[in-house]
Amino acid sequence: MEPIQGEAGIVIPPRGFLAEAAQICRENRVLLMCDEIQSGLGRTGKLFAYMHENITPDVLIVGKALAGGFYPVSAVLASKQVLGVFHPGDHGSTFGGNPLGCAVARAALRVLIDERLVERSAAMGAYFLDRLRTLKSPDLKEVRGIGLWIGIELHSPARPYCERLKEEGVLCKETHDRVLRIAPPLVITRDEIDWAFERIQGVIEQH
User: Fold this and answer.
1) Which of 106, 137, 138, 155 is deepest in the core (most CB within 10 A)?
2) 150 is in which domain, residue-wise?
3) Distance between CA atoms of 35 and 50, rounded to whole angstroms?
4) Distance CA 38, CA 103 (A)
5) pLDDT tens figures, 187-202
6) Could you tell me if 130 and 145 lie in one domain?
7) 4-13 pLDDT, tens per residue?
């Protein structure tokens, strides 16, 4: 499962959902596997989204930000008890364990921690959300998000809004047809958020 659904439109489950799901899995000896390819590594203001509910998944899938956007790297994390079911030769990958990929991933993780980008995501995300929640438009259904992962849900298709925002210098992508997905870099500044908000406000409120 995704702790927060990305492609579905930044859908955040009700508080307590993950904890209850984890409990059900434990009671039934089912592995809880969290896909944090989009939500992980600081995007939601925690290192991983599952940490918002203080649970520990049995298997964690990470990628994308793992190499800071410079190199295609993904990984599966789990305990020896889980991954120990694989023995040498059971499972392989042509590019698995690529030395360059691993070096880039380690450097990206050091930057994430040393520059406190997770904490920055939480602070800047809260600021951005506060500004976006002041938007007023009859076509606006909801603004939701956590950290620097924000969805602006509309009553009409989001693609035309994305195209207009592109002309204003703001790149974002629609998802689930009617949601504008906002996912700026974790190094974004308050001034840059203000700049982006002015353009988002102009496009949404004048549409």
Assistant:
1) 137
2) 117-205
3) 10
4) 21
5) 999 999 999 999 999 9
6) yes
7) 999 999 999 9
